[in-house]
Amino acid sequence: MSIHLARGGASALGGVLAATFAVLWPFDVFAQSVPGTALPAVTITAAQPNKPQPKRAMRSAVPSVPAARRESVPSQAAAPAAVPGSLTVLTAQQALREIQQTPGGVALVTADAYKNSTVSNTIKDILDYVPGVFVQPKWGDDTRLSIRGSGLSRNFHLRGVQLYMDGIPINTADGYGDFQEIDPTAYKYVEVFKGGNALRLGANSLGGAINFVTPSGRDLFINGVSVDAGAFGFRRLQAKTGGSNGPWDGFITAATQRSDGFRDHSFGQANRLSGNVGYQFSPDVETRFYLNANNVRQRIPGSVSKFSALTSPQTAAVNNLTGDWQRNIDTVRIGNKTTMRFDSTTVEFGAFGVDRHLMHPIYQWLDYHYQDYGAFARAVDDRVIGGFRNRLVAGVNVLNGRIDNQQLVNLAGGQKGALVSSSIDRSKNTSVYVEDSFYFLPNVAAIAGTQFLYATRNRQDRFLSDGDQSGRTEFNLWSPKGGLLWQIDPTWQAYANVSRSAEVPSYGESANGPGIPTIPFTSIRPQRATTYEIGTRVRRPDATWEVTYYRAQIDNELLCLFSAFGNCNVTNADRTMHQGIEAGAGAAIFRNLFVRGDRPDRLWLNIAYTFNDFRFDNDPVFGNNLLPGAPRHFVRGELLYKHPNGFYVGPNIEWVPQGYYADSANTLSTDAYAIYGLKAGFDDGGRYSGYIEARNIGNKAYIASSSIIDRANANSPLFEPGFGRAVYAGFKVRW
Fold first, then answer.
1. Which of 11, 192, 352, 615 has its CA 20 to 30 A from that of 91?
2. Which helix (H) or strand (E) holds 258?
3. What is the pTM of this model?
4. Number of C-alpha atoms within 13 angstroms, CB side, residue 434?
């Protein structure tokens, strides 16, 4: 297999990342050879809130638990013995205990649930079976991501969901997010906090937050190499190594990949590096330094009309070809997190800095240089007070940044022309949050909390020939929350909550385009929502399920109310409503088909269903129309035969039974579709694993995602076609 650099050459950073592989193979500074032991069983135990808790012993590494969305293949192989665990990087089982103390919709997806059995190329492979999450790749790493209808109006990048890597923000200081810095091969688990349930991270948005967590050098099977290849010229090489030596531990992973792309003008390549080094001063004090670097070069095929998307899905938009539209990015992120543990209290604090350069020739040549920095502190106190368990979480986050923003004429072939816009955009955000869980019964907690956000946006216009666009806004926003969490038995919970959220507009909400009324960013108000939620979840060895209903009443939702030629100017709607049902289940529907005994074979069903009802609320223009951009029903399911030796095989389906609108006037919609896949492989939890996966076997032409505008016609270029028939295969070795 050969890995090629992007057309036109790679940057120095890309060369450094690619060269990492030359030294990564022998890198084993921290690794230790230890005897193998069998993997322990996963259990969930009920807390005893009315009894004093003894001082906890030092945490030890345990294997990842199955994610809520899937049941992992049973492990029969011997694994290396666990070394004393990390304080700054929880194991998946510890993280699951933490996240399930949330009275609302959350999910934890372990790497074992997707990394060994899929190509793991985009975040869709991670989040596909998390109900309530709508995620569809558009091209390359760019993805349409919405949780509970968040950011539907954002036709580019991301808004409404806050992304973190090891608790460090991926989103820029003004709020926009991107997916090019996310490497699905790098993480040990991913935490999903829907809506106001993201208060634990200090996040505050309609969609919530997603936290991607990398391993430490104290994890099992920390060394490995993987090779993946398949349709549309996709190939990837990934390697990782690490280990521990006394108080020190370290981990590093690097991946290089290239794809020709399903559509014309969608080829790209990426080099990614993530690593960390930790030091334990004592069993109760640990610090860890993080590094993340990315070099991505990606062509953009563009949105096309519905007719083109369904009849010629590989065809790129004409303007994207003549202007050689691209999204290229170089980033370096560094951070530190220190954790201190006392008898009943855990404190963590840290700081971070991000340098990001976006080189983005589209309708104009966007040359943006981002410099973000910040700090955070969080304390968790879990103790018995007057015979009752009480858990207090409090923290503060600071995220500030500066954008050196230049826009130039994009000449034919993606060349820079004359300067047409330039500014310095500064953002400051300070959030303070507190949440208390009081167990007035041994298994029932009353939960109350709030967050205060102080934010400013300050633009200094440096290109005055078209008028001075300078301005400053300031926001002071409170977001309270209250709820109940009932631990019915050690494996079954019920919950309810009411929460407020607030989203401050980013500079992208003030973007103007040809034929669109100018709306200065200083006139855009923050989006506020009150969300009511009730649900239940069960996690047992042969069955897991969750069902959540929510309803959000939104004031000033950031929506596309003016548009021209596919461009959108976001402003505030009056009132809107989002409600839905999130339901997921996994179960062994048959056992002992061919193998009986203590380790029988099983037929395992995974299913995730999302119902979305998003609409205007007596809007003066659009009445009670449905909001565009997301399907009302979305179903993802798979049926896998699993043999105790690690072999698995089975079909899967993605089904959108009803098309959805692409405009607020409800005049143009997508079509319903169903696509089928099949995968097979082996993964016994040991050293080797492999898979082969076929997607969209019927080669169905369908629309994966849609941009939105206020009023569309049949020729509106809004749609991104889904990928055609594809086959991928991969092999992994770990030790």
1. 352
2. strand 248-259
3. 0.87
4. 3
